[in-house]
Structure formats: C-alpha cells, structure tokens
Specification:
seven-stranded antiparallel beta sheet; Immunoglobulin-like; disordered C terminus; alpha+beta; Jelly Rolls
Length: 495
Amino acid sequence: MKIDNIFFKFLIVISILLLIVLVHKNIREMFQDSSNEESYIKTDRELMKYCNSKNSLNCDLKKCVYSQVDLKCNAINDNLYTDSERVNEFYKESIVENGLTKDEIREIIKPTPFLPVLDLLKFNGIQKPGYIFVSEFYGSNTSVSLFFQFNAFNSEEMPIITSDNWRLYIRRDRRNDRNVYFIEFKFYDDFETYSHPAIIEPGEKFYFLGLNLSRTKLTLYLMNRDLLNSDEFVTRYSKGETYELNEELRKKIDTRTTSLFIGSDLQRENFFSGYIGKFDITKNQRTINDLKRLSNFFSNEETDYNELDKGSNISALGIDTQRDTRIPSKITLSITLDDNTVELFWLPPEEGHDSITLYVIVMVVDEKDVKYIFYDDASCQKCHKKINDLEYNKTYHFNVIAVNDNGLGNIVKDEFIPVKPVPPPPLVDQSLTGFSKNADKIACNPDGTYNIGKSCFKNEAIVATINDDVHDILIDHLKNRDSYNLKPNLQLINN
C-alpha cells in the first residue's frame, strides 16, 4: 500500500512537470508569430515560396520586393544591391505614381532665384490615398531629395519617405501648449530616432528636403527661406544634420534600400497630406553641396543669376563652390540589338551633369568611318536612342559623350561597345517592288538638321582603326568643327 502511494505521488509529480512544460510551450508560442505568413524565413527556397504567394496588395516589402517588370511579389536578391546607377539591357521604368493626378498641381512662381517655377503634386492623405512607388531600387547607398508643403495633422507622425529598412516622417509634439513639427528618421531594427533640429510649419511655407544614407553615415538636409535667414543658419542648418552610424549599430540595422514609398507608410495605411514636387532619387552618394544645388539655391535676397555665378554673395548660401566646374565624367552605355536596329540606354554622368547641353553618340563603322549623332534632350534622366537600318555584316562600335558648359566629356578607350547585325534567313519576295527600308535620318548638325542632297558623313569620314589613334582623331575633329559649338576642353581616359 505504501509503495502504491509513492508510485501515485510520482505520477502526480510527472504530470505536473509535463503540464508546466506544455503551458510554457503554449505561452512561448503565444508571443511568437504563429502564422506561416509572419514566421521567420530561414532558407532562400522558403523565402521565394513565401514571397511568390503574395500579390501587389499584400507583398511583404520587409522580406520581399514587388517587381514592376514581372508584376508579382519576388524574393529579395542580395546580389542586386549596388551603389552604381549603371543601366543594363533589362532596363525598365521602376517609378510609378498611384492615386496622383496632374489636375491637382500647385504652381509656385520663382520660389528661388534659380528655379523659375515649382510644380507640386497634391497628396490628399487618407481621404484620397496617393503615393509614389519605387520598386527594385536595390541601393547600397540612397540619396533622396524633394520639395514639400504639408498640412497640419493630429496623429503623432505623418510619413514622407518609407523604405523596407527605414522611414522618414514628420513628427508632431506638444510643447508649451502648441503643436511643434519636425523631421525624424528611424531604422526599423533599432529604437533610436534621428531628427533635424529645424521646426517646420504646416500651410503655405514650402521646404527642400535632402537625405543621404550610406552604411556609415546619415545626413538630413532641410532648407527654406526662413531657415536661411535665421540666426542659427551657420551653426545648425547650413551643413545639414549628420549622424555617424557606429559599428555596434551597424550590426543591428540594414542601411540598404530595396523599395521606397513617397507619401505613405509601408502598409499603405497612413498617407502624406500636402504637396510634393521635384522628387529625385539616386544610389550615388551626394555631398551637401550637391543637395544645395538640387535645392536650386534658396537665397535670402533676390540675387541676379550672373552675379551669383561670378561668386558674389556665395557666403550667404554657405556653398563652397557655387558652380560645378567639372566636365562630364564617363557614361556607361547599354545596347540592345534587334535584327538591324539598336537601342542605346544610358544615365547622366555622375559628374558635371548640372549644365549638360547635349549628348554626342559616337558610331564607328567597320573601324574606319566615325559618325556623330546629336541627342539634344539634355535633361533626360534615363536616356535612350533607337537607330534603325544598320547594314548587315558590318561591325559598329558605339559610345556616348556628354557636353556641358565646361567642355566635352570623358571618352573611355576600352568601352566602345561592338555590335554586328546578322541578316535573317532569306525570305521569298512575292511583291512587285521588293523589300525596302527607310534609312534613319542621322543629324549632321547640332540643331538636329541633316544635309539634303548629299550624305551627312561623306565628307567627314574619319579613317582610323579602333585603337589609341581613333580617340585623338575624334577629339581633334570635334574640337575644330565650329558649327558644333563645342568647347575644346575634352579629356581622354585610357583605362
């Protein structure tokens, strides 16, 4: 009987222990994400399956990226992150506007001495949700700039720029019985917030906002006429607010950017109310001076452009160099070939792009005949040119040079791209007139005109092989043509 009592007590103890383990397990699971959708993704295969199960409305942008090309939710590919704007043969537009209309634009005439007109798109908040979506950005670095006005709000914050790893918003605080608004930044994976010291006001006043984010540094730049005229301009606002990201913090956060929303949060539940214009984004890190140039130089007085360009009043702007004196840097070109038609894609050069007047496409045929095509859309942000009716079985080498106020851009010796159209299989011609094609009218002159009655290039052909000589001949040829109106400052890179 005594043994039975001991055994019975033993069973009770075991049952209690099992019950404790079970309760502990249930409590632990209660505080974890129990659903498969929100569980931690361990492997690439699981991540791909998880992301592909989503659609455009519920794509989890903290773990996935929505592809504008494939029109589906994809797994994030870490190998695609870069700090270069290099465009490739799969180039597609990746910036879309949702819920914004051209009918609701606020026009501000000459907001700064160098900006004749500023167009701001209206964002209507939760009443009529609208945002700008940048998909598949994949930036190791991120630089964003925009002009904005905002309306008063009652919540604690209102989104301006939201990414998969960080967000920038307007914070509202109550100080001395009044609402105070300021710019604040936060990484999702850390509790710390980073703010700009300026107090901003809702209503008619507009601001320029610039953000630079790299792996080691965050810079917030904010400017308008009031801040420029304030007593604290030199000490607090001129250089922006910079935060160094220490090694301990970098272990916790991810500074890269996969996708962005302008004017909403990541879940598209909270929206910006006000106006946003001249939105610009790049993976290349800008300096404070670059951001000031993008702001079109707020000035505390009506300064004549020519006077400012000569250097007077430059101290009032707090800018080291009021004008970019660099010639355009090299351009990375991408080409697609379809039958005997090529399409060229390129981005503006990283240096000297502010005063670009035109682009010169250099086309070398069979390594002996150099031709120029003038592309005068100097303000293009994602430039492209289609050239039709290339001759079959001939080898073409292409490159692009930018021209700005300081001269001709850089030519890189080894970066001419060769293209050789191959004729398709012969077709049986059953027509009376046979096949015919209209040759592409390649401009002979900088104004886009071409010579009628004679070949554009017959008298201008340059005989040279693709080696060091072709660059010297090309440079000399461009510099000495008065009708090109090109300045003679051109630099040759031999790497």
